[in-house]
Amino acid sequence: MAAQKSYSLPSFMNSDSSLPWLLPLITMLIVFAIIPFFYNIYLSFHEFVPAKRALLFVGWDNWIRLFTDGVFWGSLKVSLYYTFMCLLIQLVLGMGIALLIDSDDPGFGIIRSILTLTLVIPPAIAGMIFLIMEDANYGLIPWLLKSVGLIGPEDTILADPTLALWGVMIVDIWQWTPFMVLILVAGLRSLPSEPFESAVIDGARPFQVFRRLTLPMLHKVIAVAILIRGIDLWRMVDYVFVLTSGGPGTATYTLSLYSWQRFTFVQWGYGATISLFSLIVILIVGNAFIHFAKVKW
Amino acid sequence: MNKVFKQVLGWFIAAIFFFPIYFWITVSIKKDKDIFALPPKLFDFEVSFAAYEEVFGISRFLYVEDMGAVRPGGGDFYMMPNLVDSIIIALGSTGVAMLISILAAYSLSRLPIRGQQHFMGWILSTRMMPPVAVAIPMFFIYKNIGLMDTHLGIIIIHALMNLPLAVLLMKSFFDDIPKDIDEAALLDGATRFFVFWRLVVPLAIGGIAATAVLCFIFSWTEFIFVLMLTQTGLKTIPVVSTSFVTSTGTAWDNMAALGTAAIIPAFIFILLVQRHLVRGLTLGSVKQ
Q1: What DSSP character marks residue B197?
Q2: B80-281 adopts what CATH topology?
Q3: Tens digits of per-residue pLDDT, B134-161?
Q4: Structural domains of chain A in order of their starting residue, each with its CATH number
Q5: Which residues contact B165 (CB under 8 A, 6 or more apart)?
Q6: pTM of the predicted model over 0.80
């Protein structure tokens, strides 16, 4: 083969060993994933001391502070609540919409296309969109809620300690429910039609078909959607940053936002400790989920 | 369920999800008095492209000779440098991520690797890391090696962020191509690299394009790394758009103009690769 000569240059790549192929990836992951991880552990045992203008070893201080810090427990609660509630709402809503638009009829292709649009909006800008729509004075959503009497004339959303988190969650639900819809529709479309036809012949009611056939057959797709969405919900910081900056008070601090906020206050060691805690939680929960839900790549 | 009812409900849901986007676009072409109007003016407002002129710097050229009467903010809202930064970073990080991931994905798909399942698990675990947990240590590393506030620094960190997606997704695309092709060519005496570059990559070109588009979009929309790893000079669109909120008020029309300009190209890109979108969003595990 004559053409082959010109491609024999990287000769080390012609062996059947996989190492040269993986080397760039492994180098990248070591330099930019493993080293930061250990650096983070190092930081969690140090703290910047303003009086000495230096990063000093403080032993377990950061970790002790972590577990006695009320704001940390509050932000952990917010992160858990945010992750579980959004996941639940997006999954149920997504499944409902997916069942509705899983159809070959004309028009549903366009509806699916429209639903993909929210996914590519930068989350920070999605936050901005809802910042103006939820504005206390001239926002569309408070105005609507007031005119139907769901909130009082003086109430606000983002400045209200109990409503503020929902004001943030609504953005996430708007932007990422279509994520669930598209994945579940793809799952539904790939199901074989025979079991459903015979179930209908056997006189099964729609809900029974859904419980006994659709859900079990979609198990893998649902598990993957939950895993990926759960990871992203846990790491979310853009929306709270834009909409509330954690306020009012500390009502909407998530772990990531609190960690970032401590970091900007030059409590580098403590910020690193919070982020490390958040990282360890998601690594354990994520990998356990992959194991028990039997998700395979 | 009745077919007509399904259609109506489907379009109603699509309209709900599209509404905030429509509203945002109208804000970008409204005048202040219409932006703040309640009930909101959704159709009957005065159209003005002043915000776009400011953001793209057209007003600079229009008003600069007028006794230096650059309109308030005419300079502050000039966002072309940030758009260019965003494009450089998104393109650069996509290139780096694709180069590394195509090589790695080919070997993961074709060559025998000991502990492949563990290696894939490791890559997936990288996808789980909260950005803050990476950005805090990277902040110190970048300060020491001088990558702070540079395009290269952000390109590298965005490439890293996209690597798990790119590797797993490319592996799934390579897995779709029959291995017989490789084996037949190898038997004919072709080298491994020839097989890879001349046979497998051209067959996977659709998948490569889809993966590249997703990498581009995730870099384009990324927020927290840019926020923490740049200080003064370099700001991408999502980060700079937050600076429109100031203590003296928010320049909603300018912000919406910039936001609209940032999302329209992304809309076009994503509709082009819609066929592979679900596979991309699920890191290659759910095929359409």
Answers
A1: I
A2: MetI-like fold (1.10.3720)
A3: 999 999 999 999 999 999 999 999 999 9
A4: 61-292 (1.10.3720.10)
A5: B127, B211, B214, B215, B218, B280, B283
A6: yes
Q: How far apart, in whole angstroms, are the C-alpha atoms of residue B207 and residue B5?
A: 37
Q: Where are the strands (E) in A13-109, listed by range?
A: 46-49, 54-57
Whole-angstrom distance, CA of residue B131 vs CA of residue B197: 34
Is the CB of residue B129 less than 8 Å away from at least one CB of chain A? yes
CB distance A32–B138 less than 8 Å?
Answer: yes
CA atoms within 13 A on the CB side of B6: 16
Q: Which of A17, A21, A224 sits opposite B104 (nearest CB)?
A: A21
User: Cβ A297–B168 below 8 Å, yes or no?
Assistant: yes
A163 close contact with B: CB closer than 8 A: no
The distance of B75 to chain A (nearest Cα, Å) reads 22
Give the residue extent of every domain in chain B.
3-48, 80-281
Give the Cβ contact number of residue B70 at 10 Å.
17
Are B281 and A179 spatial neighbours (Cβ–Cβ below 8 Å)? yes
The ipTM of this complex is 0.89
Note whether A265 contacts B: Cβ–Cβ < 8 A.
Answer: no
Subunit contact B241:A125, Cβ cutoff 8 A? yes
Q: In whole angstroms, give the CA distance from residue A44 to residue A15.
A: 44
